[in-house]
Design brief:
The protein contains 10 helices and 8 strands. By secondary structure, the chain is an alpha/beta fold. The protein has a single domain, classed as NAD(P)-binding Rossmann-like Domain (Rossmann fold), CATH 3.40.50. The protein is globular, with a radius of gyration of 17 Å. The structure holds NADP nicotinamide-adenine-dinucleotide phosphate.
Amino acid sequence: MKKTVVILGGTGGIGEAAALALAKQGNDVIIQGRDTEKGKKIGDAIVKAGGTAKFIPSAISSVEDVKTIAAEIKKLTNKIDVLILSTGTLNSDRKETKDGLEEGFLVNYLSKFIVDTLLLNELKNGEGRIIIVGAPLMKSATINFNDMQFKNDYSLMKGMGQNMLAVHMHAQEFAKKYGSKPSINVIHPGVVKTGIGRNLKGAMKFFVTAFTPLIGNSAEKSIINIVELANTDKIESGYFYPKVAKPEAKQKIELDATVAGKVWEESQKIAKL
Ligand SMILES: NC(=O)c1ccc[n+]([C@@H]2O[C@H](COP(=O)([O-])OP(=O)(O)OC[C@H]3O[C@@H](n4cnc5c(N)ncnc54)[C@H](OP(=O)(O)O)[C@@H]3O)[C@@H](O)[C@H]2O)c1
């Protein structure tokens, strides 16, 4: 049956590839992105592939932007079968949003918390499968409760670590609250040849530029688990899929529940939800 698929970050490598693959299955696809030209081009490709396309042009530069994106999605549909959250940024230097958040905190983590919360009814009206494009946790990752926005001591690694840990904790808490309707799972796409390195500098830029073309997957390969999760009859929730094309390698997310609860409360306060 035809599904309603919503993709945040639908104009980037992995989100775009997921949009086209799910369009080929004849689905209705809504994508969000900040570049109207790209959005239009991908919309045309979605239609050519066999789906229908709608584009929401918006940057994610404040909590209000994310709330507006959720409101725009609600205007377009009252049911969501598949919600793919694929926005992401890697910043060597700390960048701040209009409302004073560390950009990675908003784009990589909080925007996902906000849309999952605000679109709960639409997800419940549909099949409600949330798929977050994430990454494995770094071993030393912690939540920096004293300075979650890294105003004092930012580094790419610390920011990435905290924000990805928060994503995994969000998935764990969400699954605990709602079971598998809506369901929520996090997938690692592997190393993928996309535009994600655009804001990197120095050694990290060199590493990503030199090695990703050699060892990276194509965006088309990276989405195998996304397409599987969008279609499987066996719906489960609260898992991390660490290996591309190997859903059997999934791991239940089992992090410190007290910290995860505190992250949820802080996120509600910051997002005023
Ligand atoms: N590529 C990898 O090797 C890799 C590995 C592990 C995890 N991931 C994760 O996969 C996800 C997708 O990344 P990708 O590799 O497909 O990168 P990408 O090509 O850069 O796509 C990222 C998407 O996020 C959007 N975006 C970034 N910052 C934004 C902002 N401030 N406001 C609105 N939209 C914004 C981009 O919009 P534009 O099109 O306008 O730039 C794009 O649609 C990310 O969460 C990333 O962390 C990627």
